[in-house]
Amino acid sequence: VGEFSNTRFGEFKAATHTDLWHYSRCTLQLTVSSAPKGLFDKPASERMFDGQRVLVTGGAKGLGRAIAERLAALGAEGLIGDIDSEAGANVSAVARSNGKVIEFHHLDVTNRSDWDRLTVTLANLGGLDMLVNNAGILICEPIATMSEETLQRTFDVNVKGVLLGLQTALPLMTRRKQGRVVTIASTGGFVGSAGGYAAYSASKAAVLLMSKCAAIEWADQDIRFNCICPSAIPTSMAESLTETDWAARAEASLLNRTARIGDVVDSVIFLLSEQSAYITGTEIIIDGGTTAQTAR
Question: What confidence category does residue 47 fall into, taking pLDDT thresholds of 50, 70 and 90?
């Protein structure tokens, strides 16, 4: 194939679409040798997170555990925070038996004292490179009968928990002038639905915008903030969904299936890695194209 023509883009005027197609096909073909150096020589490393420390909230079960275990397998020194001490200790033990590091710490994300204790631990360990805000709850109540307690509890865990996580992690990351934060949001954060999801959806909309604001506020520290917005995945949070519900969701997807935990984990890894070094203040939607068919 040929190299770029010396003709500058600004000087080229195509008379017809056919001319433009011919020009792009015959004149603007790019050789591998002319590509930017390094573009093709960055294979994903099996130890891409060696020497880096990550905290995953809600990491004792389900999606959080899957994220923590994948990161540990890729070389990260993992910490998980959760209110389920038994499950958390089990994750740590299993990792240790496999030669990996996942350290469990009891953490109620709504409790500032728990975060303060974790701050001391992280500082003593040498800081923090990555934070995954994964902890969350879902309480389904329709607006007409929703209790104030449900709204408050949902926002305490899903929004205040993210805020306290950021306030803990950012000073530690700022000292290094780098860091990555991924928050698990939801497609429910920008698309309404029936079934009593109002409190949950409102909380996820809140953290989507909180993440964007954080990206702006800490841009000069080279700290990146992004969200993952999955549709329902098979974890305990979705245990109320019936086989009929799952079938309907698969049918609504352009890919004719529902989301898998691995789909979400892969995207989290991408946003934490250097492969996404120019991505911040945005979100990845993982729903098989379901919301592509919905006006936003």
Answer: confident
Backbone CA torsion sign across 31, 33, 37, 38: positive
Dist. CA 192–CA 240, nearest whole Å: 18
Among the listed residues 23, 197, 200, 278, the single catalytic one is 200
DSSP string, 202-234: HHHHHHHHHHHHHHHHTGGGTEEEEEEEE---S
Instruction: Tell me the residue length of the chain.
Output: 296
Instruction: Say if residue 198's pLDDT is above 50.
Output: yes
- The whole-model pTM stands at 0.84
- Rounded CA-CA distance 140/153 in Å is 12
Taking alpha carbons only, the member of 46, 133, 56 closest to residue 102 is: 56
- The alpha helices in 53-107, defined as continuous H runs, are 62-73, 85-97
Q: DSSP states of 95-136 as a string?
A: HHHTT--EEEEE--TT-HHHHHHHHHHHHHHT--SEEEE---
Cβ pair 110, 160 in contact under 8 A:
yes
Distance CA 240, CA 285 (A): 23
The pair phi, psi for residue 257, each rounded to 5°, is -160, 170
| 200 among known catalytic residues | yes
Q: Which helix (H) or strand (E) holds 170?
A: helix 161-174
